[in-house]
């Protein structure tokens, strides 16, 4: 008899490049590790504020390190991630509130599409994100009209508050619920530790079953 899947929650924001890396690795392993991966769109700005933290990209030395780190990790994990030229204006001016409300609306109305739409938003092609994920123009427009509704706003706030209660101070955060215990892991580089907690084998960021398809 196949054991029931273990539950993992992934709290993420499309403004966080490390969230994308962790997202892709967990999506690759969810069947290999028999996990129920629950995607939890959250607002990184609110988590930073609640914890007293600040984005590393706003500190010059960390920003310089971040650009090279993201480039190398993208190559290793085989994610087509590029540091956008307008990254600082995105952080300081635009933020991710509308994008995360949109993903919250997707999760409420079309949860099976959340993985694909999240991935497309990370590709920074928001104008065609929903279409490429298999969503009709009418569906996408309907969701965009809902991002300012109390239901969507409250859901995003509640999810973000849940991440804070787990102890989040940034994103991504993976929360593993195992044998009555809760383990909060920060960052995209804790997958080997996660495998240990699950009693599973870590086979690198691109496991053989996935690598054979690439």
Automatic annotation (TrEMBL):
InterPro entries: DSBA-like_thioredoxin_dom, GST_Kappa/NadH, GSTK, HCCAis_GSTk, Thioredoxin-like_sf. Pfam families: DSBA (PF01323). Keywords: Transferase. It catalyses: RX + glutathione = an S-substituted glutathione + a halide anion + H(+). Its EC number is 2.5.1.18. Residues 7-198 form the DSBA-like thioredoxin domain. Belongs to the GST superfamily. Kappa family. This is Glutathione S-transferase kappa. It comes from Felis catus.
């Amino acid at each position: 008899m196949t054991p029931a899947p273990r539950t993992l929650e992934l709290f993420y924001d499309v403004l966080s490049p490390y969230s994308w890396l962790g997202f892709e690795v967990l999506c690759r392993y969810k069947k290999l590790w028999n996990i129920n991966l629950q995607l939890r769109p959250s607002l990184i700005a609110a988590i930073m504020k609640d914890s007293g933290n600040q984005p590393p990209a706003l500190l010059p030395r960390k920003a310089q390190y971040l650009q090279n780190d993201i480039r190398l990790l993208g190559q290793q994990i085989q994610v087509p991630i590029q540091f956008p030229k307008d990254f600082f204006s995105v952080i300081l001016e635009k933020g991710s509130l509308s994008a995360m409300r949109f993903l919250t609306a997707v999760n409420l109305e079309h949860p099976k599409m959340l993985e694909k739409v999240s991935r497309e938003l990370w590709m920074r092609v928001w104008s065609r994100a929903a279409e490429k994920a298999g969503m009709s123009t009418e569906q996408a427009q309907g969701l965009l009209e809902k991002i300012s509704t109390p239901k969507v706003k409250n859901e995003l706030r509640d999810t973000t508050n849940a991440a804070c209660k787990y102890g989040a101070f940034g994103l991504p955060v993976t929360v593993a619920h195992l044998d009555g215990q809760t383990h909060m892991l920060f960052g995209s580089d804790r997958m080997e530790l996660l495998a240990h907690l699950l009693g599973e084998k870590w086979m690198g960021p691109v496991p053989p079953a996935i690598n054979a398809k690439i």
